[in-house]
Write a structure and sequence with these properties.
Length: 309
């Protein structure tokens, strides 16, 4: 014992490198921001309209204080899942390489785990079974945004915004579009009409934010590849509207008690990069993370499916 072969030695430099690594094409955590939790399993709040309920706060002189009558906080169970992947470095590769192979191993393994997380988030929020009946719509035939003469995407989005406001009292501040949905929307006559006098020839997400009055609009561009080599979009021809809790002030950590559409729960202190050597000739740079994704406020979201015919 006490040798590299038998110990799990966490590398803090590589761990911090992995934690700070971002992939611009991965947008899932815009909908489900990361919250650190202390335990691998437990309960977290599931939010309802009580979070936005109005209470009487006026008090007369010498009167008793106003007291809330809580309806009881609903909770949901969570259990973090371990994600583990290692990158091998032969001692001959390390000595001959002009690059830092350990750094590369940390970044490659982090990219793999983040892509897996993106697929998990996309699968959860694009599943219409996770939404109430009045918080989703499936478009078909002439209503699809790709049918330019008969569809009304601005109306569809406005209806979704109003459904969220009616449920939680605030409008959504985030919209996620699959790449196909984004193309259909920005090329639609309803949108083009709104900017026809603009000096810009290409409609951007920033322009859509102004037109649709949504603070943040992002496009899911990432693809996945099967073992057989078949590529497919992680984000389908869908649009997801959501109210996401704004980032807290600097120096304050985001927590799971702030009402929001969804959260990515991560064990505090993760990810961790460690190194181990099995046979003295191959060093493994291993990435370990503990994560799960939960829709904690389904009524803060709205799903528009099948926008492309």
């Amino acid at each position: 014992m006490g040798t590299l072969e038998n110990e799990r030695i966490v590398d803090p430099v590589l761990s911090n490198l992995a934690l700070g690594f971002k992939m611009p094409e991965l947008i899932g955590t815009v909908l489900a921001p990361v919250v650190e939790v202390e335990k691998e399993a437990g309960k977290i709040p599931q939010f309802s309209d009580e979070e936005f309920k109005e209470f009487n706060t006026e008090r007369a002189i010498r009167a008793a204080s106003n007291v809330i009558s809580p309806e009881g906080m609903t909770t949901i169970d969570y259990a973090l899942k371990e994600h583990d992947i290692a990158y091998p470095i032969d001692y001959r590769e390390q000595s001959e390489s002009m690059f830092n192979k350990e750094k590369r191993g940390a970044l490659v393994t982090q990219r793999i785990i983040l892509q897996r997380l993106e697929r998990e988030i996309a699968s959860l929020v694009q599943n219409n079974a996770n939404y109430d009946s009045d918080h989703k719509i499936g478009l078909s035939t002439t209503a699809c945004w790709s049918e330019k003469d008969t569809s009304t995407p601005i109306d569809d989005i406005d209806n979704g915004k109003e459904a969220i406001r009616a449920s939680i009292g605030v409008y959504p501040n985030v919209m996620v579009l699959g790449a196909a949905a984004f193309r259909a929307l920005r090329n639609h006559p309803q949108i083009i009409e709104k900017i026809k006098y603009s000096v810009k020839a290409v409609i951007t997400t920033e322009m859509l934010q102004d037109i649709l009055e949504i603070e943040t609009i992002v496009v899911g561009k990432a693809i996945t590849k099967s073992d057989a080599g078949v590529r497919s979009d992680i984000w389908g021809d869908n649009a997801i509207l959501a109210y996401v809790a704004p980032p807290p002030p600097d120096g304050i950590e985001r927590d799971e008690y702030d009402p929001s559409f969804a959260y990515t729960l991560r064990k505090k202190g993760m990810p961790q990069i460690d190194k181990f050597n099995r046979d003295g000739k191959v060093l493994y740079v291993r990435n370990t993370d503990l994560l799960t994704v939960k829709m904690v406020g389904p009524t803060a979201g709205y799903l528009i499916e099948n926008v492309v015919k």
